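Possible regression after last week's pipeline update?

I re-ran a chain I had predicted before the update to compare outputs. Posting the input and the new output here so someone can diff against the archived version. Not blocking, just want to make sure nothing changed silently.
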Amino acid sequence: MVGLSSLIDYLRTFFKGLQRRPVLSLRLVLLLSLSILFVGADALAESSSSSVRLTPAEKSWLAEHSEVRLAVDINWAPFEFIDENNNYQGMAAEYIELVEKRLGITFKVDKERPWAEMVEAVKNRDLDAFSLVVRTPQRDEFVNFTQPYISFPMVIVTRENEPYIDGISALRKQTVSVVKSYASHDLLARNHTELTLHLAENVKKGLEAVSNGQTYAFVGNLAVASQVIRESGITNLKISGQTPYRFELSMAVRKDWPQLIPILQKALDSISPEERDTIYNHWIRVKFQEEVDYRIVFVVLGVGLLVALVFLIWNWKLQKEINHRQRVEADLKNKSQRLDEIIWGTDIGTWEWNIQTGETVINERWAEIAGYTLKELAPISIETWKKLAHPEDLELSNEIVKKNFSRELDHYKAELRVRHKNGHWIWALVRGKVVEWTTGGQPLRMSGTHQDITERKKLDRMKSEFVSTVSHELRTPLTSIKGSLGLVAGGALGEVPDKSKEMIDVAYKNTDRLIGLVNDILDIEKLESGSMEFDFVPLNITDLVIETVEANRGFAQECDVDFVLTDLPDEVKVQGDENRLTQVLANLLSNAAKFSPSGEKVEISVERMGDKVKVLVTDNGPGIPEEFYEHIFGRFAQADGSDSKAKGGTGLGLSISKSIVERHRGTIDFVSDGSSGSVFFFSLPTIQN
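New output (post-update):
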């Protein structure tokens, strides 16, 4: 029957041609006869190949579900619509008819409800399937989809006096019309929150909103928008730009009927390319040609003159648009050239990666950093990067990329080793970000920069080695000086006069402070170089807190404050290094004691929070100024220099504590109102007892 339909369409088109050309030669008649024979043969071939092979289980399922309630868009020509005689028409209707014949089932079409109600009906299972729908994350929650069988681009429509629209980003801060519950609505609401959306009941109303100036643009299907503009007689609109999206149109079935999806897919796959072309031509091409009435010669001449006039006007407008675009392109080219020159001047490589295909584009500087030319690296793909990157660093890079893909991180940044053409390793600072996502919310395209930081790494290493050497050389004599001063102050060399004793005490305290500074610098250097050793073992954090507080009570007494333990659970296990965690807590206790007024209390508590535990140190000191918040965990950071000197301290303790806690996969932070009191705390992941 499908082949017979093709034959009838062929004859209809041919005889319409006869109306335009009344006189035919014998050669044309013979050609027609041969064509009929060939088309008839094709019809027989098509009818013999239109059956669908189903499994026994699929046949059994269809026997139990011989009628499927179908949700359609009653006002979406040329894809599907209900005509004035209440008949289901359009491209999708012809596909549905073929599927019915191949499977021997009946689709009961709902011809009353508007689209938004159709969507809710399928969601509530009042209807069973969609005839034609775009797959979106929202719809994935309640239906399963076949493969797309119709595809058209999603375009931007504006009034004809508006300039060319270079993508959706150009619509920022504009009001855009979309049809409520259409895929365009779901996609723009999900991926382009910067747009102000105007929800229209149907395509015609959405286009009318643009025509009368209520909204700036309409975003929708190219075929449907063109059809509605033509049929409605709206003359002041034009297609002004494209979007990165397409209407990939599929059938979709309620989630609790997964058996129907492979059955429908087999039926759709059995529809031949010739049948698909026939449907397409019927609704997209031939129908438009039929709108011209060739029966009256004078009408033909009049239409011809009108078309010629319209063509001349259109050609004039088109030339203006071309000139405008040429100017825009020239300007963009100049800007692009300047941007390339700026990038080249910064000595930075650039890259762009198609995540779906692996295709990668780099500039010449990217290749030069690794000692190559672009030609030597061709063909370039993501595999090129994988071959050049150090295997250990590649693992770290993959972890950061995954976090960017999942939107856990806003961007990608890593310092990685890259093998140079000469065989040695260089260091590169690699930055990147996902700049385009698929309609399903998956990462599509990522771009970024590539900077050679080998010399900086060498300088950092030299600095670290210098600091380490100086610190080691200082610690030994300082320790000796401190010991000697301690012996003198203790009377080992005889009784010391009071005035001399005061000076010795000052020298002793300053020596002790210098030793603390040297130790802190060494810790910083070890943490930076990764040479600090950690002995991770299961620990009871409650016991560690109690022991650390008791060990530091003497210092609290010197500061005339009291350490008070509150809200301690019996046992909370963490995987940690006892000495390093003790160092962190001792630093927090020391700071709280130094900055608390005399006679005050410092409270220490432990809180269990799901799979984490938090250790808190609360003081009643002067608080931390708001302008110092972002520097509190920096090196040599002190909120009030004058007071800090009086209290003592290197300004490195919190920076070291932060690094130690992060090596334990934890976090450290504080709360302060800036005037009275602060709460410093760190959180660690717990383990099973």
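Follow-up from reviewer: compared with the archived run. Residues 12 and 374 are 58 Å apart (CA to CA). Marking as no regression found.
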